[in-house]
Amino acid sequence: MTEALARGWLLAWIAFGAAPAGSLVLLLVHRITGGRWGEALAPILRPAAALLPLVALGFLGVAAALPALYPWAADPGAVKPDVAALYLNPASFTARGAVALLGWSVLAGLVLAGRCTRLVAGLGLAFYGLTISLVPVDWILSLEPRFTSSAFGAGFALHQLLAALALAAVASPRGLDGKTAPDLANLLLATLLGVLYVGLMSYVVAWYGDLPAKAAYYLRRAASPYPAVIGAAVAAGGLVPFLLLLLGAVRRSPGALRLVGLLVLLGLVLRFVWLVLPAWETGAGGAAIVAGPWLAGLVIAGLLALRLAGRFGRRLRHA
């Protein structure tokens, strides 16, 4: 796999996997708390969570192309010797990713099979909280191993939740009406504020710290076209949806929430572009071009997988 193909695959895989993981978390939360919002969104959240095994399968492409993606995989000297020996090495990276994705897939299977008790849901959320503090650092931050951020895992989890809620808004399930649409709007608004807050505070802390590694991280993203990318992500995917969600008419309308969801999804894709592509001084343009077809292919594969799973489930129920 060439560098451009591998890098495009990583970007597309990260963007594609956000909504399925976020859907699983929302289903686990609803299993513990209940509420009409979960019942209304279940027709979208359950099929989305069912795609987690496909996301886990896509991780094989990342693991197979580590030297083309991560500087520490191509040259262990890119990080400190103890870090390379104990943490950032291909075996540990692959093991952490496999455990997280297989665990999420098993939890999704339990939820879809109706075998997820409240205890299992609570333990599942604890497992997710542990793994989400590790794998986003591996998948994204280790592209630039000298940059660290203690809030990155929490911010990435909020991105996944926001992607799942935006997908639910775009799909507008039949249960989403004038009574349940405000619930979805409230969840979107709260999660969107969380994403904006964590992103802004991370930048402010890095700016005040004024450390070379953190400065280099943001200076790479100051080169064209990345200021326009993050500006469009914040405006189209953050500020405009936030202002729309303050309007009562929008909050009560599934059709208006569909527009909000589309804007949020666009903003999330641009955000992932801003996070991933500047890490590579060369090949970023090719990766950006390749990522689009990869993402489209993953979406099509996901839809086909859901269709086959639906047919299989209907045959089982008929039998």
From TrEMBL:
Q: State the source organism's domain of life.
A: Bacteria
Q: Where are the transmembrane segments?
A: 6-29, 50-73, 93-112, 119-141, 147-172, 184-208, 228-247, 259-280, 286-309
Instruction: Report if keyword Transmembrane is assigned.
Output: yes
Query: Keywords, A to Z?
Result: Membrane, Transmembrane, Transmembrane helix
What name goes with this protein?
Answer: Uncharacterized protein
Q: Which organism is it from?
A: Methylobacterium tarhaniae
